Amino acid sequence: PFDVLVIGGGPAGASSAIYAARKGIRTGIVAERFGGQVMDTVGIENFISVKYTEGAKLAASLEEHVKEYNVDVMKLQRAKRLEKKELIEVELENGAVLKSKTVILSTGARWRNVGVPGEAEFKNKGVAYCPHCDGPLFAGKHVAVIGGGNSGIEAAIDLAGIVSHVTVLEYMPELKADLVLQKRLFSLPNVTVLTNVQTKEITGTDKVNGISYTERDSGEVKHVELQGVFVQIGLVPNTEWLGDAVERTRMGEIVVDQRGATSLPGVYAAGDCTNSPFKQIIISMGSGATAALGAFDYLIRN
Ligand code: FAD
User: Fold this and answer.
1) Which of 18, 30, 38, 53 has most ligand 1 atoms within 8 Å of its beta carbon, as the pocket-test mutant?
2) Which ligand 1 atom sits closest to the C-alpha of 30?
3) Helix (H), strand (E), coil (C) string for the chain
4) Ligand 1 centroid to 190 CA: how many Å?
5) Which pTM value belongs to this model?
6) Quick check: CB of 98 below 6 Å from ligand 1?
7) pLDDT averaged per 10 residues in sequence order, the chain, 302 residues
8) Does the beta carbon of 135 sit less than 6 angstroms from any atom of ligand 1?
9) Which of 77, 124, 238, 273 has most ligand 1 atoms within 8 Å of its beta carbon, as the pocket-test mutant?
Protein backbone atom coordinates (compact mmCIF):
# COMPACT_ATOMS: atom_id res chain seq x y z
CA PRO A 1 0.00 0.00 0.00
CA PHE A 2 0.94 3.67 -0.30
CA ASP A 3 1.86 5.80 2.68
CA VAL A 4 0.41 8.86 0.97
CA LEU A 5 -1.96 8.71 -1.98
CA VAL A 6 -2.76 12.06 -3.60
CA ILE A 7 -5.95 12.41 -5.65
CA GLY A 8 -5.68 15.30 -8.13
CA GLY A 9 -2.75 16.64 -10.13
CA GLY A 10 -3.15 20.42 -10.03
CA PRO A 11 -0.88 22.78 -8.06
CA ALA A 12 -2.19 21.43 -4.72
CA GLY A 13 -1.69 17.78 -5.66
CA ALA A 14 1.75 18.32 -7.19
CA SER A 15 2.89 20.18 -4.10
CA SER A 16 1.48 17.47 -1.78
CA ALA A 17 3.20 14.71 -3.76
CA ILE A 18 6.59 16.47 -3.71
CA TYR A 19 6.42 17.25 0.00
CA ALA A 20 5.39 13.66 0.79
CA ALA A 21 8.01 12.05 -1.47
CA ARG A 22 10.75 14.19 0.08
CA LYS A 23 10.02 12.40 3.38
CA GLY A 24 11.07 9.16 1.71
CA ILE A 25 7.64 7.56 2.05
CA ARG A 26 5.66 5.62 -0.59
CA THR A 27 3.76 8.23 -2.54
CA GLY A 28 1.29 7.95 -5.40
CA ILE A 29 -0.69 10.54 -7.34
CA VAL A 30 -3.85 9.95 -9.38
CA ALA A 31 -4.79 12.73 -11.80
CA GLU A 32 -7.47 12.86 -14.39
CA ARG A 33 -5.73 15.80 -16.06
CA PHE A 34 -2.30 16.75 -14.79
CA GLY A 35 -2.03 20.52 -14.28
CA GLY A 36 -5.73 20.97 -13.47
CA GLN A 37 -7.17 24.44 -13.99
CA VAL A 38 -3.71 25.76 -14.78
CA MET A 39 -4.14 24.04 -18.15
CA ASP A 40 -7.05 26.42 -18.89
CA THR A 41 -5.03 29.52 -18.09
CA VAL A 42 -3.06 31.63 -20.52
CA GLY A 43 -0.99 34.32 -18.76
CA ILE A 44 -0.06 33.95 -15.09
CA GLU A 45 1.45 37.05 -13.49
CA ASN A 46 0.85 36.42 -9.78
CA PHE A 47 2.85 33.27 -9.17
CA ILE A 48 5.34 34.99 -6.91
CA SER A 49 8.98 35.06 -8.07
CA VAL A 50 7.91 34.24 -11.64
CA LYS A 51 7.01 37.52 -13.37
CA TYR A 52 5.15 35.87 -16.21
CA THR A 53 4.38 32.34 -17.25
CA GLU A 54 1.69 30.48 -19.14
CA GLY A 55 -0.62 27.72 -17.98
CA ALA A 56 0.67 24.94 -20.22
CA LYS A 57 4.25 25.78 -19.28
CA LEU A 58 3.56 25.82 -15.54
CA ALA A 59 1.60 22.55 -15.80
CA ALA A 60 4.57 20.92 -17.57
CA SER A 61 6.98 22.12 -14.88
CA LEU A 62 4.67 20.82 -12.15
CA GLU A 63 4.76 17.38 -13.73
CA GLU A 64 8.49 17.53 -14.32
CA HIS A 65 9.12 18.49 -10.69
CA VAL A 66 6.93 15.63 -9.40
CA LYS A 67 8.77 13.17 -11.66
CA GLU A 68 12.10 14.19 -10.11
CA TYR A 69 10.96 12.13 -7.14
CA ASN A 70 10.00 8.56 -6.61
CA VAL A 71 6.26 9.15 -7.07
CA ASP A 72 3.92 6.67 -8.72
CA VAL A 73 2.09 8.92 -11.22
CA MET A 74 -1.26 7.58 -12.48
CA LYS A 75 -2.54 9.95 -15.16
CA LEU A 76 -5.89 9.95 -16.96
CA GLN A 77 -7.46 8.12 -14.03
CA ARG A 78 -10.54 9.30 -12.21
CA ALA A 79 -11.30 8.41 -8.59
CA LYS A 80 -14.94 7.47 -7.94
CA ARG A 81 -15.15 6.22 -4.34
CA LEU A 82 -13.27 6.56 -1.05
CA GLU A 83 -13.81 4.31 1.92
CA LYS A 84 -11.90 3.72 5.13
CA LYS A 85 -11.44 0.09 6.07
CA GLU A 86 -8.23 -1.11 7.69
CA LEU A 87 -6.51 1.15 5.16
CA ILE A 88 -8.09 3.90 3.11
CA GLU A 89 -9.34 2.57 -0.21
CA VAL A 90 -9.82 4.63 -3.33
CA GLU A 91 -11.62 3.06 -6.24
CA LEU A 92 -10.91 4.35 -9.73
CA GLU A 93 -13.35 4.51 -12.61
CA ASN A 94 -11.40 1.71 -14.33
CA GLY A 95 -12.25 -0.58 -11.40
CA ALA A 96 -8.80 -0.62 -9.74
CA VAL A 97 -8.75 -0.18 -5.96
CA LEU A 98 -5.75 1.64 -4.48
CA LYS A 99 -4.91 1.29 -0.78
CA SER A 100 -3.07 3.81 1.34
CA LYS A 101 -2.40 4.72 4.97
CA THR A 102 -3.22 8.37 4.26
CA VAL A 103 -4.94 10.16 1.38
CA ILE A 104 -4.70 13.79 0.27
CA LEU A 105 -7.71 15.03 -1.68
CA SER A 106 -6.82 17.79 -4.15
CA THR A 107 -9.42 17.45 -6.86
CA GLY A 108 -9.85 21.20 -7.33
CA ALA A 109 -12.89 22.97 -8.67
CA ARG A 110 -14.48 24.20 -11.85
CA TRP A 111 -16.14 27.52 -12.66
CA ARG A 112 -19.86 27.30 -13.24
CA ASN A 113 -20.58 28.32 -16.83
CA VAL A 114 -23.52 30.52 -17.88
CA GLY A 115 -23.93 28.33 -20.92
CA VAL A 116 -24.85 31.06 -23.43
CA PRO A 117 -23.60 31.32 -27.02
CA GLY A 118 -20.17 32.97 -27.16
CA GLU A 119 -19.02 31.86 -23.70
CA ALA A 120 -16.97 28.88 -24.80
CA GLU A 121 -15.97 30.48 -28.10
CA PHE A 122 -14.48 33.59 -26.46
CA LYS A 123 -12.92 31.94 -23.40
CA ASN A 124 -9.56 33.70 -22.89
CA LYS A 125 -10.59 36.07 -25.73
CA GLY A 126 -12.55 38.39 -23.47
CA VAL A 127 -14.48 35.84 -21.41
CA ALA A 128 -12.77 35.42 -18.03
CA TYR A 129 -13.52 33.83 -14.68
CA CYS A 130 -10.86 35.14 -12.30
CA PRO A 131 -10.72 38.88 -11.58
CA HIS A 132 -7.50 38.55 -9.52
CA CYS A 133 -5.86 36.86 -12.49
CA ASP A 134 -7.27 38.58 -15.54
CA GLY A 135 -8.56 41.94 -14.25
CA PRO A 136 -5.41 43.87 -15.26
CA LEU A 137 -5.76 42.64 -18.86
CA PHE A 138 -8.86 44.84 -19.12
CA ALA A 139 -7.35 48.07 -17.76
CA GLY A 140 -9.23 51.07 -19.15
CA LYS A 141 -11.86 48.92 -20.89
CA HIS A 142 -15.58 48.31 -20.30
CA VAL A 143 -16.41 44.91 -18.83
CA ALA A 144 -19.48 43.03 -17.63
CA VAL A 145 -19.76 40.86 -14.54
CA ILE A 146 -22.40 38.15 -14.72
CA GLY A 147 -23.68 37.32 -11.23
CA GLY A 148 -24.81 39.49 -8.34
CA GLY A 149 -23.80 37.23 -5.46
CA ASN A 150 -20.81 37.87 -3.20
CA SER A 151 -18.22 36.75 -5.74
CA GLY A 152 -19.82 38.80 -8.52
CA ILE A 153 -20.04 41.98 -6.47
CA GLU A 154 -16.52 41.54 -5.05
CA ALA A 155 -15.31 41.11 -8.63
CA ALA A 156 -17.21 44.23 -9.75
CA ILE A 157 -15.70 46.34 -6.93
CA ASP A 158 -12.24 44.98 -7.65
CA LEU A 159 -12.56 45.56 -11.41
CA ALA A 160 -14.03 49.06 -11.03
CA GLY A 161 -10.61 50.17 -9.75
CA ILE A 162 -8.90 48.93 -12.90
CA VAL A 163 -11.30 49.15 -15.84
CA SER A 164 -13.21 52.15 -17.21
CA HIS A 165 -16.70 50.83 -16.56
CA VAL A 166 -18.34 47.74 -15.05
CA THR A 167 -21.84 46.54 -15.92
CA VAL A 168 -23.23 43.95 -13.50
CA LEU A 169 -25.95 41.56 -14.73
CA GLU A 170 -28.08 39.73 -12.17
CA TYR A 171 -30.85 37.31 -13.11
CA MET A 172 -32.94 37.83 -9.96
CA PRO A 173 -34.79 41.09 -9.22
CA GLU A 174 -32.29 41.87 -6.43
CA LEU A 175 -28.59 41.40 -5.83
CA LYS A 176 -27.78 38.53 -3.46
CA ALA A 177 -24.46 39.88 -2.18
CA ASP A 178 -23.96 41.04 1.42
CA LEU A 179 -25.30 44.53 2.08
CA VAL A 180 -21.86 45.99 2.88
CA LEU A 181 -20.63 44.92 -0.53
CA GLN A 182 -23.71 46.34 -2.23
CA LYS A 183 -23.22 49.67 -0.44
CA ARG A 184 -19.62 49.81 -1.54
CA LEU A 185 -20.64 48.93 -5.10
CA PHE A 186 -23.33 51.59 -5.32
CA SER A 187 -20.86 54.20 -4.04
CA LEU A 188 -18.68 53.71 -7.11
CA PRO A 189 -19.10 56.13 -10.04
CA ASN A 190 -18.24 53.73 -12.88
CA VAL A 191 -20.65 50.86 -12.22
CA THR A 192 -24.05 50.07 -13.75
CA VAL A 193 -26.21 47.39 -12.13
CA LEU A 194 -28.85 45.58 -14.19
CA THR A 195 -31.16 43.30 -12.22
CA ASN A 196 -33.87 40.95 -13.42
CA VAL A 197 -31.99 40.37 -16.66
CA GLN A 198 -31.06 37.16 -18.40
CA THR A 199 -27.80 36.99 -20.34
CA LYS A 200 -28.57 35.80 -23.88
CA GLU A 201 -25.30 35.92 -25.75
CA ILE A 202 -21.70 37.08 -25.56
CA THR A 203 -20.99 38.63 -28.93
CA GLY A 204 -17.73 39.16 -30.79
CA THR A 205 -15.69 38.53 -33.88
CA ASP A 206 -12.18 37.36 -32.97
CA LYS A 207 -12.71 38.60 -29.42
CA VAL A 208 -15.60 39.84 -27.26
CA ASN A 209 -17.31 43.04 -28.42
CA GLY A 210 -20.51 42.99 -26.37
CA ILE A 211 -23.24 41.24 -24.44
CA SER A 212 -26.94 40.76 -25.16
CA TYR A 213 -29.51 40.30 -22.43
CA THR A 214 -33.28 40.07 -22.01
CA GLU A 215 -35.08 42.33 -19.53
CA ARG A 216 -37.18 39.71 -17.82
CA ASP A 217 -40.25 41.83 -17.07
CA SER A 218 -40.58 43.49 -20.48
CA GLY A 219 -39.05 40.69 -22.56
CA GLU A 220 -37.04 43.33 -24.41
CA VAL A 221 -33.60 42.30 -25.70
CA LYS A 222 -30.75 44.80 -25.26
CA HIS A 223 -27.10 44.89 -26.24
CA VAL A 224 -24.16 46.63 -24.57
CA GLU A 225 -20.83 47.13 -26.32
CA LEU A 226 -17.92 46.09 -24.13
CA GLN A 227 -14.61 44.22 -24.26
CA GLY A 228 -14.70 41.72 -21.45
CA VAL A 229 -17.12 39.47 -19.55
CA PHE A 230 -16.37 38.01 -16.12
CA VAL A 231 -18.57 35.05 -15.28
CA GLN A 232 -19.06 34.94 -11.50
CA ILE A 233 -21.84 32.50 -10.81
CA GLY A 234 -19.94 30.16 -8.56
CA LEU A 235 -17.05 27.77 -8.25
CA VAL A 236 -18.06 24.12 -7.97
CA PRO A 237 -15.67 21.81 -6.07
CA ASN A 238 -14.96 18.43 -7.70
CA THR A 239 -16.05 16.52 -4.62
CA GLU A 240 -19.38 14.92 -5.60
CA TRP A 241 -17.68 11.50 -5.76
CA LEU A 242 -16.87 11.60 -2.03
CA GLY A 243 -20.48 11.49 -0.86
CA ASP A 244 -20.52 11.39 2.95
CA ALA A 245 -16.99 9.96 3.32
CA VAL A 246 -15.69 13.32 4.61
CA GLU A 247 -17.49 16.39 5.93
CA ARG A 248 -18.31 18.92 3.21
CA THR A 249 -19.95 22.35 3.38
CA ARG A 250 -23.33 23.14 1.84
CA MET A 251 -21.37 24.23 -1.24
CA GLY A 252 -19.62 20.85 -1.39
CA GLU A 253 -16.23 22.11 -0.18
CA ILE A 254 -14.22 19.70 1.97
CA VAL A 255 -13.88 21.03 5.52
CA VAL A 256 -10.24 21.06 6.67
CA ASP A 257 -8.44 22.22 9.79
CA GLN A 258 -5.17 24.16 9.97
CA ARG A 259 -3.18 21.00 9.24
CA GLY A 260 -5.28 20.12 6.22
CA ALA A 261 -7.02 17.29 8.08
CA THR A 262 -10.59 16.36 7.08
CA SER A 263 -13.22 14.82 9.36
CA LEU A 264 -11.94 11.31 8.48
CA PRO A 265 -8.67 10.44 10.30
CA GLY A 266 -5.83 9.92 7.83
CA VAL A 267 -7.59 11.82 5.05
CA TYR A 268 -6.28 15.30 4.25
CA ALA A 269 -7.31 17.84 1.63
CA ALA A 270 -5.80 20.87 -0.09
CA GLY A 271 -6.49 23.53 -2.69
CA ASP A 272 -9.68 24.61 -4.41
CA CYS A 273 -11.68 21.53 -3.33
CA THR A 274 -11.53 22.69 0.30
CA ASN A 275 -13.26 25.44 2.27
CA SER A 276 -10.19 27.68 1.97
CA PRO A 277 -11.63 31.15 1.33
CA PHE A 278 -9.35 32.14 -1.55
CA LYS A 279 -8.59 30.04 -4.61
CA GLN A 280 -5.26 30.71 -6.27
CA ILE A 281 -2.25 28.73 -7.50
CA ILE A 282 0.10 29.91 -4.77
CA ILE A 283 -2.50 29.27 -2.07
CA SER A 284 -3.19 25.76 -3.40
CA MET A 285 0.49 24.93 -3.40
CA GLY A 286 0.86 26.15 0.18
CA SER A 287 -2.10 24.12 1.35
CA GLY A 288 -0.76 21.07 -0.53
CA ALA A 289 2.48 21.36 1.43
CA THR A 290 0.49 21.73 4.67
CA ALA A 291 -1.62 18.64 3.93
CA ALA A 292 1.46 16.53 3.12
CA LEU A 293 3.20 17.58 6.33
CA GLY A 294 -0.05 16.94 8.21
CA ALA A 295 -0.29 13.46 6.69
CA PHE A 296 3.36 12.75 7.54
CA ASP A 297 2.77 13.81 11.12
CA TYR A 298 -0.24 11.46 11.26
CA LEU A 299 1.87 8.57 9.89
CA ILE A 300 4.58 8.91 12.51
CA ARG A 301 2.00 8.96 15.28
CA ASN A 302 -0.10 6.00 14.09
P1 FAD B 1 -7.08 22.14 -9.86
O2 FAD B 1 -6.10 22.99 -10.55
O3 FAD B 1 -8.52 22.28 -10.18
O4 FAD B 1 -6.64 20.63 -10.11
C5 FAD B 1 -7.47 19.55 -9.77
C6 FAD B 1 -6.86 18.25 -10.22
O7 FAD B 1 -7.68 17.16 -9.78
C8 FAD B 1 -6.73 18.06 -11.72
O9 FAD B 1 -5.57 17.31 -12.00
C10 FAD B 1 -7.97 17.25 -12.07
O11 FAD B 1 -7.87 16.54 -13.27
C12 FAD B 1 -8.01 16.31 -10.87
N13 FAD B 1 -9.28 15.67 -10.56
C14 FAD B 1 -10.50 16.21 -10.36
N15 FAD B 1 -11.41 15.28 -10.03
C16 FAD B 1 -10.73 14.09 -10.00
C17 FAD B 1 -11.08 12.74 -9.71
N18 FAD B 1 -12.33 12.39 -9.34
N19 FAD B 1 -10.13 11.78 -9.80
C20 FAD B 1 -8.85 12.09 -10.16
N21 FAD B 1 -8.45 13.35 -10.43
C22 FAD B 1 -9.38 14.34 -10.35
N23 FAD B 1 -4.75 31.32 -10.10
C24 FAD B 1 -3.68 32.11 -9.95
O25 FAD B 1 -3.05 32.09 -8.90
N26 FAD B 1 -3.27 32.93 -10.96
C27 FAD B 1 -3.89 32.97 -12.17
O28 FAD B 1 -3.49 33.75 -13.06
C29 FAD B 1 -5.03 32.13 -12.37
N30 FAD B 1 -5.72 32.17 -13.53
C31 FAD B 1 -6.77 31.29 -13.69
C32 FAD B 1 -7.43 31.30 -14.92
C33 FAD B 1 -8.46 30.41 -15.16
C34 FAD B 1 -9.14 30.41 -16.52
C35 FAD B 1 -8.86 29.50 -14.13
C36 FAD B 1 -9.96 28.51 -14.39
C37 FAD B 1 -8.23 29.54 -12.89
C38 FAD B 1 -7.19 30.43 -12.65
N39 FAD B 1 -6.53 30.49 -11.42
C40 FAD B 1 -5.43 31.30 -11.28
C41 FAD B 1 -6.93 29.64 -10.28
C42 FAD B 1 -6.01 28.43 -10.15
O43 FAD B 1 -5.88 27.80 -11.41
C44 FAD B 1 -6.55 27.45 -9.11
O45 FAD B 1 -6.69 28.11 -7.86
C46 FAD B 1 -5.61 26.26 -8.91
O47 FAD B 1 -5.37 25.58 -10.13
C48 FAD B 1 -6.19 25.27 -7.92
O49 FAD B 1 -5.34 24.18 -7.80
P50 FAD B 1 -5.87 22.78 -7.26
O51 FAD B 1 -4.69 21.87 -7.36
O52 FAD B 1 -6.53 22.94 -5.96
O53 FAD B 1 -7.01 22.32 -8.28
Assistant:
1) 38
2) 20
3) CEEEEEECCCHHHHHHHHHHHCCCCCEEEEECCCCHHHHHCCEECCECCECCEEHHHHHHHHHHHHHCCCEEEEECCCEEEEEECCCEEEEECCCCEEEEEEEEECCCEEECCCCCCCCCCCECCCEECCHHHHHHHHCCCEEEEECCCHHHHHHHHHHHCCCCEEEEECCCCCCCCCHHHHHHHHCCCCEEEECCEEEEEEEECCCEEEEEEEECCCCCEEEEECCEEEECCCEEECCHHHCCCCCECCCCCECCCCCCECCCCCEEECHHHECCCCCCHHHHHHHHHHHHHHHHHHHHHC
4) 32
5) 0.88
6) no
7) 98 98 98 94 90 96 98 97 98 98 97 96 95 93 97 96 98 96 97 98 98 98 98 95 97 97 98 96 98 98 96
8) no
9) 238
* ipTM given for this complex: 0.99
- Give the domains, in start order, of the chain with CATH numbers: 2-110+235-301 (3.50.50.60), 127-231 (3.50.50.60)
Q: How far apart are CA 55 and CA 53, in angstroms?
A: 7
Residue 197 Cβ < 6 Å to ligand 1: no
79 lines ligand 1 (CB under 6 A): yes
Ligand 1 centroid distance, CA of 138 (Å): 23
Q: Which residue is closest in CA terms to ligand 1's atom 41? A: 280
Distance 197 CA to ligand 1 centre (A): 30
